[in-house]
Specification:
Helix content is about 35%, strand content about 15%.
């Protein structure tokens, strides 16, 4: 592992993922029957686009977001998506959408149901495959026949994998970074801890809290749990160590003593201003349900990347995906990247990932 110090952006997560409404558009894609048996009568997908679709209509790229992301890919993936970057908006028509079940414009638990009240506890279970169906409807709405690339990290990587299997003729290439074919017990355990923080908040009210402040305390704690898993031990050590917060000695008063405590409280509290607790429940369940047994039937060329310091989505999971692609007779490559930033390295590394993505896009597929 390299000895590079923590990237300042690693500890500015709320700023990097701040909500941006400008440029957001909406597509009404009709009703969707869900894999778990539920049904949504009317679905809206929030999306953004950058660049221009060429005359051949073969330069479209779909960028799929992770758990707490949204359609504004040029913001949260600002080292990879934009003019002159690996996913070059001067050359490609780039599409980002908010997932089904989300809370940034797409139909989700906080959306108003047809009878005029928020779905709340009535919102059905959504799976990764359902999110992809909604994206495929958006693809047709935009009159795109085939993606030159479907890209995503973490939960976004799961969506990219599903695209290759669900709609194999619609995907030329897939880039899946810091992701896996199925969560293991530890990954599910972290998500369940986050869910319980919300479910045990008295203000959760069974999910029907939209006429009140809602379970903001539980949601803040859930975000703290998640954030701890996204970073590395080395990053926390170098940034905070055992440094005290605005004091020289312990106060022994039950309040915040360490700088890292202050930081996590800030991250949790600010997160509640842009995210919905029910969405966190729905989306973490979706990624826990996800299980890809094989890539049989896929036709895309694959690139898998992982990071040596990512302990929540460790490299062996990407190695397994690469073997799965090769077993299905597909062109595939895996690269482990050395960065000291943990899981969030997939958001911050533009250099190595960027070079690999440029190489993938230059292939003749």
């Amino acid at each position: 592992m390299t000895s590079k110090s923590p990237d300042d952006a690693l500890f500015s997560e709320n700023e990097r993922t701040a909500v941006v409404d400008a440029g957001r558009q909406y597509a009404d894609i009709g009703s969707i029957g869900l894999r778990a048996g539920g049904h949504l009568e009317s679905v809206t997908v929030a999306y953004e686009t950058w660049g221009q679709l060429n005359d051949a209509r073969d330069n479209a790229i779909l960028v799929c977001h992770a758990l707490s992301g949204d359609s504004h890919a040029i913001g949260w993936w600002d080292r990879l998506v934009g003019p002159g970057l690996a996913i070059d908006t001067n050359h490609y028509f780039v599409v980002g959408s908010n997932v089904l079940g989300g809370c940034q414009g797409s139909t989700g638990p906080s959306s108003v149901a047809p009878e005029g009240l928020p779905y709340g506890s009535r919102f059905p279970a959504v799976q990764i495959e359902d999110m992809v169906v909604a994206q495929e409807r958006l693809m047709r709405f935009l009159d795109i026949e085939r993606w030159a690339l479907v890209a995503g990290g973490s939960m976004g990587g799961m969506q990219a994998l599903s695209w290759a299997v669900q709609f194999p003729d619609s995907v030329a290439r897939v880039w899946c970074t810091a992701s896996c074919s199925a969560h293991d017990a530890m990954q599910i355990g972290f998500n369940e801890s986050s869910r319980q923080a919300i479910l045990r908040d008295p203000e959760f009210r069974g999910g029907d809290y939209y006429d009140s402040c809602g379970p903001v305390n539980g949601l803040a704690v859930a975000r703290m749990i998640g954030h701890l898993s996204y970073l590395s031990e080395d990053s926390f050590r170098q940034k905070f160590g055992r440094r005290l917060q605005d004091k020289e000695n312990f106060a022994f008063d039950g309040g915040i003593e360490f700088a890292v405590e202050s930081y996590l409280n800030y991250q949790g509290d600010k997160f509640t201003a842009r995210f919905d607790a029910n969405t966190l429940l729905v989306v973490t369940r979706a990624i826990d349900y996800f299980e890809l047994p094989s890539l049989d039937g896929a036709k895309a060329e694959f690139l898998f990347t992982s990071f040596d310091s990512d302990w929540i989505y460790p490299t062996h999971q990407s190695v397994a995906l690469n073997k799965m692609a090769i077993a299905a007779g597909l062109l595939s490559k895996h690269v482990e990247i050395s960065r000291p930033w943990g899981h969030d390295a997939f958001l911050l590394d533009g250099e190595v990932q960027g070079s690999l993505v440029r190489e993938l896009l230059s292939s003749g597929k």
